[in-house]
């Protein structure tokens, strides 16, 4: 009898007219489409098929870019290389977090809490207080964040982002605050021009990511342990290596570039350089975190696709700008227009760096963009890709959305040529390489984001 009553109750629940859907699948109502938000400063690169590789003479006899038909999906790409202004925002965010974390730790050591004044106003946020959290937040704090998650006893504790940091030293609230700030800044005797500056060796960014490919290949049955085994954590210094301007040109007077290029407002819209492949990858992780934090603060449920470095095939496809068989992003075969004006920032002759209008780098939106509204895909600075370099990789990669085949290879593909390169390296098919831990005064990067939405495909046009 009990079984009959239970089944009847279950049936009445299933077929209740109060559900409003009349037993139909009403979740996908026609007309309610996914709205694609175009990321700021990025262009949509419609997917398609193109001939990847070089059809021109191989002057260096590299034999590493034979022609191959490849199809890529749609994605967004930065219209310009990442600029000093944009990378400084990353540096300032990390700096702010470092300062607040150190203040919170010192306040904790001194037994000072919010409301006690002084450094106590920067103490860790105690989210386990019922009035400050939702049931979900309380559960997560009690079961995860309040436990020691690493060798750092403060891991998982939330820093106070609301308390304003005083700009003027005269407004430092107490001697404890002064002591913390003094420990994070170089003494005047060790600083440029005798002015105290932040100790950049403390600017470390820590992030985690999932090695999806490794997890897929793992035959273990415990999904939770698989996830933990393949969650990777990276921690690295993120400040650009400004010394490259001097080390790479020992007989040139490049001290002003070393001192001013990254921080001076005059170079704000110039491409950032001195950033190695690992730092570029960390910037992508931070940019994803930064955008998702914004969406979370506004209680938007969706998250953006991760920002990342472009795969080599994506980079070349985007550089061609929709032109099939083009030698350069603008077509070719020349590097000047009908008025004999150079179309990119590079070294036209053996000793003439200034003939193209720029001595070193140029502003990120200099020269004419290609068909996808991308600036300086050739010249200005070479660009990191996510792909590892292998001279024979074209013969083994997939023809559909080819990705890196050897992620452990420390040599990464660099594309596009730079302000110090001859025209050969400006060709969209020319491959170059550099070690992932190397920073150069002529290598920068731009980011991409996978397009989430209806498939967008474009047929390539002939080269001009």
UniProtKB/TrEMBL annotation:
Pfam families the UniProt entry points to: FGE-sulfatase (PF03781)
Residue span, Sulfatase-modifying factor enzyme-like domain: 41-448
The organism's place on the tree of life at top rank: Bacteria
Alphabetical list of SUPFAM superfamilies matching this protein: C-type lectin-like (SSF56436)
Annotated GO MF terms: formylglycine-generating oxidase activity
Protein name: Protein involved in gliding motility GldK
Species this chain originates from: Myroides guanonis
